[in-house]
Amino acid sequence: MADARRPLISGNWKMNHNHFEAIQAVQKLAYVLNPADHDVVDVSVHPPFTDIRSVQTVIESDQMRLILGAQHCHFEEKGAFTGEVSPTMLAKLNVALVIVGHSERREVFGETDEEVRRKVAAVLANGMTPIFCCGETQEERVAGGTDDKVSGQVRAGLAGLSPQQVAGLVIAYEPIWAIGTGLTATPEDAQAACRVLRGVVADGWGRATADSVRIQYGGSVKPVNAPDMMVQPDIDGLLVGGASLDPDEFARIVAYHRLIG
Ligand code: PGA
Hints:
By secondary structure, the chain is an alpha/beta fold. The chain has 13 helices and eight strands. Helix 1 (19-32) packs across helix 3 and helix 8 crosses helix 10. The model has no long low-confidence stretch (mean pLDDT 96). 2-phosphoglycolic acid binds at residues 12, 174, 179-180, 218-221, 239-243.
């Protein structure tokens, strides 16, 4: 089962790189990745909205094997939602993966579990795959509330989905206190949380679904700590913020999979 889960390494650029910088970054990334990397791992980039069309054009015209992703979207297809971008618009640009419910969206922009649930459903309805994020704050961790928090987020965010839908999506466990702080969960703590998440999926959607769903770890991932995360049995990939802005550093995180064969 674990063998069937192809690793997914995702670069979340957040609000970095204008479209010129984005083109350069993706060209450099394609150059520094070893072609053999793509045989063993999926690699996605998640540029800001204003870069997506440019990055799509470069990926497609140069036939790069990078997967195009977005960082969020609205749940409605169109309408009076000033400033928002719809899943239909992203699908039209051949976006394949959409990060949904990132803690920065939840904390800074007030996204609720219900909004996240509607976004997950909308992304799926448009033929794309959500990367569904969950994670606990430092206070919740200290109080022993990690498992309850992330389990509750998964149950709320994936409510109403079929086993097939859940089996195909990606869950990212991102402890909020580890994002952008340089603090990483220990590989054992990350594994424990990812195991809990897989158990929640098994309880709600069955064992086969739980065995198929890919679970990423995110939070201050660097080339130095990525291998320790990736050897954990329930961690199938990484959601990388800061370190994905440097193509060399990001490629070193990806390369681990090829090197271990
Ligand atoms: P970080 O961000 O790698 O910079 O901690 C991870 C994320 O927010 O997805």
